[in-house]
């Protein structure tokens, strides 16, 4: 049996995600199992997930996934490169995943691999420095550096899902094959098209209180409370205003003077959007600033980012996923947590990460319309669904 990995946030799970799973099975066989490495309660664009990780895992299982593993927060809210590296590491450490399926605007493995090889080449760092010296923002400099080395194939880096696909390929071990599925319908952050909607458009409708507008593009009715970071806006501003420069400099990716600029923005701004606007420059991208703000709110530092994922946390599974788990118990290279009690078996370093995750989940609960009590990491078991 082929076992395909998929890296996702499912924020929220929608018809495009269901299509990717269906296409993966069409290519690999209808009996192929699908294992997802999914972000937890915090996601890569430095935001809270619209629903908690156990809810999103259950929806993914109903939509065709078989087993959902968590991508821990330190990787889930990092740059595309670190996000991809952590997620591929989760799937690889399971010891049973034979393929990695991902969507991309290009759908061309040849083009995506060419960009991935270029980014890992000895010539790339010098080309990047030359592009940065021209005053280009990092994403544009990165693409320009690759263009200088491989020509028009660098154009794949202009699309967000292509960028992630390239990072997946850079991290992919030789034991896993890549499956690129062309993305169809609405593009990233765009309005619905061809029967599909982007996750960002759907989040906007759901958070605005219009679930009926989102319904045609979801795989089932939206019946959950929607989390929104805006509910913690003043708490985040309070954190920024009370931090010392030393604390800000301990945040990941806060070098080159960004820590001081962030604190100045926090004192001057009265909203999160103002913080982002005041701190952002051509040198400091909006995405980098957002991530730094979230790291500050969650109380995480660069020292809290382990070099490698230390365990495999199970968020949900169905009957076929249970069979995959049985194989994982034989072949996985990391401890498997199927219930909170298993934390007692972890090494001290791995347990520290779980305790960090516990704090992040407690803060996530404050993003809900009705604040959730703390301690859910220690009391919530995986979602379990029968296979369709």
Structure description:
With about 400 residues, the protein is of the alpha/beta class. Helices cover about 45% and strands about 10% of the residues. The chain contains 17 helices and ten strands. The protein has helices at about 15-30, 55-60, 75, 80-95, 110-120, 125-135, 140-150, 160-170, 200-205, 210-215, 235-240, 245-250, 260-270, 270-280, 285-300, 320-330, 350-365, and strands at about 5-10, 35-40, 40-45, 45-50, 65-70, 100-105, 175-180, 310-315, 335, 385. The strands form two sheets. Strands 1, 2, 5, 6, 7, 8, 9 and 10 form an eight-stranded mixed sheet that branches. A hairpin with a 3-residue loop joins strand 3 and strand 4 (about 45-50). Helix 4 crosses helix 8 and helix 5 crosses helix 8 (about 160-170). The chain starts with a strand and ends with a strand. The model has no long low-confidence stretch (mean pLDDT about 95).
